[in-house]
Amino acid sequence: MSRQAKDDFLRHYTVSDPRTHPKGYTEYKVTAQFISKKDPEDVKEVVVWKRYSDFRKLHGDLAYTHRNLFRRLEEFPAFPRAQVFGRFEASVIEERRKGAEDLLRFTVHIPALNNSPQLKEFFRGGEVTRPSEMSRDLHILPPPLIPTPPPDDPR
């Protein structure tokens, strides 16, 4: 009996906010959103900070898995090469950011990639939030207390 993984979530990935780490490398904010197909209000978000070498390793692992799926009709996305000089230039940082985002977005429609242990490990330890719960909590708060002058105050 064949067992097919059923995916109950839409996935959306963004790579943004590059910053220089004090140890001398660039980190990128990686956000994964998982939106329930049954209840679009049910959203889970995972945020991790990763560096170029983390993406390069993930690219290699996922490229290997993709090659073994025999999906020859779709070309696995290329990834920017490593370089020693100029790696802190804005154009290089942006090229790496875009390459990382393209890699993650490529996995969305391929269950063997988006459910891979390597991708799960990539996001392990990330900050998990549920934006829908946070917005619901905001409505629970009472209105702010603003002092108003008494009606007979001449001011």
Automatic annotation (TrEMBL):
Pfam families: PX (PF00787). Residues 1-130 form the PX domain. Residues 133-155 are annotated as: Disordered. It comes from the Eukaryota. InterPro entries: Intracell_Sig-Traffick_Protein (IPR051866), PX_dom (IPR001683), PX_dom_sf (IPR036871). Residues 141-155 have a biased composition (Pro residues). One of its GO terms (molecular function) is phosphatidylinositol binding. GO terms for biological process: protein transport. Keywords: Methylation, Phosphoprotein, Protein transport, Transport. SUPFAM superfamilies: PX domain. PROSITE patterns: PX. Belongs to the sorting nexin family. May be involved in several stages of intracellular trafficking. Overexpression of SNX15 disrupts the normal trafficking of proteins from the plasma membrane to recycling endosomes or the TGN. Homodimer. Interacts with SNX1, SNX2 and SNX4. This is Sorting nexin-15. It comes from Macaca mulatta (Rhesus macaque). The gene is SNX15.
